[in-house]
Amino acid sequence: MFHNYFNKNVSSAPLAVFRIGFGLMMVFSVVRFWLNGWIKTLYIDPKFHFSYYGFEWIQPLGNYTYILYAICGLSALFVALGFKYRIAIIMFFLSFTYIELMDKTTYLNHYYFVSVLSFLMIFLPANKYYALDNYASAKAYKFVPRWTTDSIKLLLCIVYFYAGLAKLNSDWLLRAMPLKIWLPSKYDLPLLGNLMQLEWIPYVMSWSGMLYDLSIPFLLLYRKTRTLGFILAVVFHVLTRMLFPIGVFPLVMIVSCLIFFDAAFHKRILRILNRFLKPPAYKIKKIIISQNYRVRRPFIILPVLSLFFVIQLLLPWRYSLYPDELFWTEEGYRFSWRVMLMEKMGYTQYRIVDGDTGASFVVDNTDFLTSYQEKQMSFQPDFILQYAHYLGDHFTAQGHQNVQVFAESYVALNGRLSQPYIDKSIDLYSINESFQHKDWILPFNDDIQGL
After folding, report:
1. Is 238 strand, coil or helix?
2. For 432, phi and psi rounded to 5 degrees?
3. Where are the domains of the chain?
């Protein structure tokens, strides 16, 4: 059965359209980030950056960060054009992922999605049709292996379905949290503002979001419901974009969902592009058209992609290896497609103590962190620990002796009253980051049922 599947072919058009759409959206994303001044605000101005565990060596490059963004944007454009595609998609993956890893303060699920998707695209023959590379080789292919397009569909299904599973919890479904907090603030939206004030709307949207995420993979996979599924995807993501400032992610997901449509649909898109672009050289009849493209070195690519998908399926479940409430400790929370599930607010104050004399002073966080960094640090334990080490190193370098760092922290989760978060008797400077459970996080005084 597996042998027959991997020998099946499908039209190259869907993969070509996906490549073009993905590349153009990434160009737009890079330009948008640059023009809004966020490169300077997020990566150049801060004195300190919160690194991912194991990737501390990845740091912003000062003003050279602009060059990194230029490489990312240019490689995305080359991906869209199908020009030097293999080199372009590798450069895009490396540059975009480097940007993502520079500071976890900016972590968003859709940045992770772009990194994961661009890694997958390295192994796909997305430049074998309607690409500038076809001119260099004077050859194009009508068909590519079916698994090349199915792999993108599988990744999208994992993202949606896991996002739906994550919503199966009592806060989201029974308390309508955090939508009950967020939606009333949208009172100034045209047409929707008054609707957002109704008490039952957060419950409707919470349940609708859960049902959408769990059902949309099946609606898109089944031909008879595909159009309905795509309409729902457009409505859902447009509404999400109107309500929440999440950048280009809704557009990325809408365009990505097009991959589920059949080849005739994508060929119509390419014909429309031809009419608008009128490329003088692009006439398929001038290029040798071959039937089936055979992937080179499948004995390497298929095992790599199999491992890739095993990781994607298992990684979101790593939280089950830790005790205590996930939303409280956030151990295993990132990289698991948990999208907009909680509202946390925190206050964390640090005290530097001389271990010999007991003399101490309180740190003014604004001396070291931007307001956005301080907000993110105040309720995320790995941030709290990393910043404690930064403060310990800083004051040790200034000549302080036997430095100890203690934190007094209070956090409110999904509308609950604020409660103590960190054991303030623990010297955080003496604790090293690891994948072990952070037992210095105080217990959560409530219970959230669900996955």
Report:
1. helix
2. -95, 145
3. 2-166+262-319, 345-451
Residue 84 has, within 13 A of its CA and on its CB side, a CA count of 10
- Encode pLDDT of 94-149 as tens digits: 999 999 999 999 998 989 999 999 999 999 999 988 888 888 777 888 889 999 99
Backbone dihedral angles phi then psi of residue 127, each to the nearest 5 degrees:
-110, 20
- What pLDDT band is residue 1 in, cutting at 50, 70 and 90? low
- Total residue length of the chain: 451
Using CB atoms within 10 Å of the CB of residue 257, give its burial: 0 to 12 exposed, 13 to 18 middle, 19+ buried: buried
Both tokens of residue 155?
């990744």
* DSSP state, residue 52: P
Q: Please spell the DSSP secondary structure of 152-178, one letter per residue.
A: HHHHHHHHHHHHHHHT-BHHHHTS-TT
Report angle CA 164, 313, 310 to the nearest 5 degrees.
165
How far is 17 from 25, CA to CA, in rounded Å? 12
pTM: 0.92
pLDDT band at 363 (very low <50, low <70, confident <90, very high): very high
Decide: helix, strand or coil at residue 179: helix
Side-chain half-sphere CA neighbours of 52 within 13 A: 16
d(CA 321, CA 337): 17
Q: How many angstroms separate the CA atoms of 286 and 212, rounded?
A: 45
Helix H or strand E encompassing 419: strand 419-420
Q: Structure tokens of 442?
A: 């105080």
